[in-house]
Amino acid sequence: MLDSETPVTPVTFPPAFLWGAATSAYQIEGAVREDGRTPSIWDTFSHTPGKTAGGDTGDIAVDHYHRYRDDVALMKELGLGAYRFSISWPRVQPTGRGPAVQRGLDFYRRLVDELLAAGIKPAVTLYHWDLPQELEDAGGWPERDTAYRFAEYAQIVGEALGDRVEQWITLNEPWCAAFLGYASGVHAPGRTDPAAALRAAHHLNLAHGLGTVALRSVMPTRNSVAISLNTSVVRPLSQSPADLAAAQKIDDLSGGIFHGPILHGAYPRTLLEATASLTDWSYVQDGDLGQIRQPIDAVCLNYYTPTVVSAADADSRAPRADGHGVSDHSPWPAADDVAFHQPPGERTEMGWSVDPTGLHELIMRYHREAPGLPLYISENGAAYDDKPGADGTVHDPERVAYLDGHLRAVRRAIADGADVRGYYLWSLLDNFEWAYGYEKRFGAVYVDYASQQRTPKSSALWYGRAARTGTLPAVGAAEAQA
What we know:
- The chain is globular and about 55 Å long.
- About 40% of the residues lie in helices and about 15% in strands.
- The chain contains 15 helices and 13 strands.
């Protein structure tokens, strides 16, 4: 365990701390052709040969669309207090324009009602990467109009669910949507145009601002609006000026490009200078930055692993070790002079280093970046090679240790003054892991994909005990804690 604290020390969280788990629509729902839903960019991408491991798709996923009542009952049994899920845009608004399909909205109404009846707080994410294919055909996120279409969609969902859902997140990880989708091409829609990726990032920012206004126009004032960012915790390999410059460039591209305009109303000067060879940023129109900098009620943070960089050796031809998939095209526009390094030590099945200190560092960074705003950890978790034992149980001690270390980092940040109000484990269920298909298991609950049987892993039992008591259980005795 890399955290400096000893696991023997009891760790208790504030009484109001929210203990949740998270999922996303395309990864779990299935039912991709039911009740009026039309293809998203992920339907198209996953059905394109060679884009996902094993040719896997989310056509069925873990069939949550039909099994949501059982899944909510499982959350209640575990003792979770909150559930963060995303809305499938093409299930609600199939073309990305015009009126809603009520059958699609009805699914989310039923899900929310089921959660509330179980005493579980729903948290809605409006966009977790499943853009309606028709909007991509019209240009996708590099086109300004997509931001206005998102605002229309946000208003539709806010009107339908805003009376019962108090926690709202506009976008999940806009960095992935922009740069894995439009620069490296390892995510849908699979485009490889770095200048288009930068335009996409701006229009995602604009969508957040417009969507925030749209939500507030139709929802009670008590509701909270936030955004989930996956800003990299960037560490230079050395303190040399060249390595520090490399770290600044990646920090701008992963974090500053989003929290700059969202929190401060401006893009970092260093970002504009570094990307000048690709764009003059003329698509940032008068009034955009003010529109993007809407007052928000919280900042949500997703964290998995830190990023270590240096200035690239001009003679180096090593593969890019940034943890974001294999592609001949970089997700880091105008950063070919930066090299990525894999830290030593324990790694998850994703090849990501296990380092809870990075989560503490990220929280404290946003404690300073957004003073006065509550913080939530909207995603944190790990993939391991989980398999059922002969008795059908699934033991995942590595994940238990991972969660223990990272939750201790959260508690330490709270002690250091950060206003962290909740934690959402990623993920509730094993699911379709994007381009990795069904090869990587992040779930606290094991899913047999053939039978769709759900089996809580040791980590689910351990985490459920933490959620019920507000205190981290001893590591290594998860089964006895259920």
